[in-house]
Amino acid sequence: MSSAPQARGNPKLRFDVYEADPRAGELRKHGYRVPLENRPFRALVILLQNAPEVVTREELQKELWPEDVFIDFDHGLNKVIGKVRRALNDSADKPRFVETVGRRGYRFITPLTPDDSQDKDGQDNVVVAAAASTASIESGEIHRRSWGVLSVTGAVLLAVLLVAFLLRPATPKPQVVSIVQVTKSGEAWPLEPMATDGPRLYYQSLSQNLSPSMAAANWRVKQVLLNGNEETVIPGTSDRIHSFRIRGLSPDDTEFLALSRLEEHKWMTATLPVVGGSPRHVGSLVADDVAWSHDGSTLAYTRGRQIFLANPDGTGSRALASVPGDVSDLDWSPDDSKLSFTLLTEQQTLWEVGADGRQLHERRLNWPGKAMECCGKWTPDGRYFVFRSRRDGTSNLWAVEREVRLVAPGQSRPGAIDLRADELLSTASQSKR
């Protein structure tokens, strides 16, 4: 396998309607950026640079993970290729781009579009030079004639676009089309976040079967297959109450990002392989909450009324923002350009701040009564921001659409998902946040 560029300057790799730019680390479709994390993008580039040859799983493993990393590589690589396929709207059963080759590896099966622009540079320069003198003679007259035509054409085009914008169909609101019970143990703890890698759901479990005492409760992390009902405990996560709290998954879905308890009200940032083991502290980051950016390059964490950023290994910690209350529920936007969070004062309000520390502001909903909103999350495509609102004793999920669009007079609320948040999980404890 060769991972070297096929031409000088690390050129862009074009296929079908897509373009992969190794230098910028971006995948684009029809010129628009397609969100794809760093490791899946690197896997795609390796497959493209070696197309149509087979790249073995061992070769991909060597290129994508450092030698000193010990994880379940089979699971990790399956997730990486799965994300590549999702970004390309591809299917493992009927592949258009990435084909699985037995138990050996993968290969890219769609022909690449040749980039011959560099080969034509010399010829193009000669043509341009020859035509330059003739063009200069006629340019003045051409400009005078074309200016009037362009002005009229531009005005007509602007009017057409405005009419098309005003008369376009209304964007449908997100809707819950079905509800399926996933767990049956009754141990899902509602006050901690869940995480999923696609086929599995990870969640915090609390069992009080042996004793009604909270101190004697069995606190652990479980996984459940979404295409079945097999619930299993992640090894190394069963200990005293609230000793290990998952906050999410690493970008390649091979590690938990978590908080490991040191003492009362003091937590260390830690990671743990999803296959189980012992937590490993991330530097010396003491945090109340923590979140991994989608590209894996940055950790965001909170401590009291401050938000910080740090490198993935816990080094390089720097302050991002100071806020007028405690912070919870950190979440990165899909493009990692900003962070959302819940601000806890005598109320619960939704806030966000840019990854550069600018544009710190509250998401004002202008709803009557005491604000009790929390736990905001972006959908993977960044189209909606979904959050929970608890008003008048009822807890519902709501969604704000990303795009600014015209609405009918008086339509100030975001579109609602008609689902009670308290019904998402069943639990033996009826504690309320």
Description:
- The protein has 433 residues and is an alpha+beta fold.
- Helix content is 19%, strand content 33%.
- It has 4 helices and 27 strands.
- Strands 1-2-3-4 form a 4-stranded antiparallel sheet, covered by helices on one side.
- A hairpin with a 3-residue loop joins strand 6 and strand 7.
- It is globular.
Q: What are the defining features of this structure?
A:
single chain; alpha+beta; four-stranded antiparallel β-sheet; 4 helices; 33% strand; globular; disordered C terminus
In short:
The protein is an alpha+beta fold and 433 residues long. The chain has helices at 38-49, 57-64, 73-87, 121-167, and strands at 13-15, 18-21, 26-29, 32-34, 55-56, 98-101, 105-108, 195-196, 200-207, 218-225, 231-233, 244-249, 255-263, 266-273, 280-286, 289-292, 299-303, 306-310, 318-322, 326-332, 338-344, 348-354, 361-362, 373-378, 384-391, 394-401, 415-420. Residues 3-8, 118-137 and 404-433 have low confidence and may be disordered.
Structural class by secondary-structure content:
alpha+beta
Query: Could you give the count of β-strands?
Result: 27
Strand residues, percent:
25-35%
**Helicity level, as a percent range?**
10-25%
Largest sheet: 4 strands, antiparallel
Mean pLDDT, nearest integer? 76
Q: Which strands sit side by side, in order, in the main sheet?
A: 1-2-3-4
Q: Report the C-alpha radius of gyration, rounded.
A: 26 Å
Task: Show unreliable segments.
Answer: 3-8, 118-137, 404-433
Quickly count the helices: 4
Q: How widely separated are the two ends?
A: 54 Å
Overall geometry comes to globular
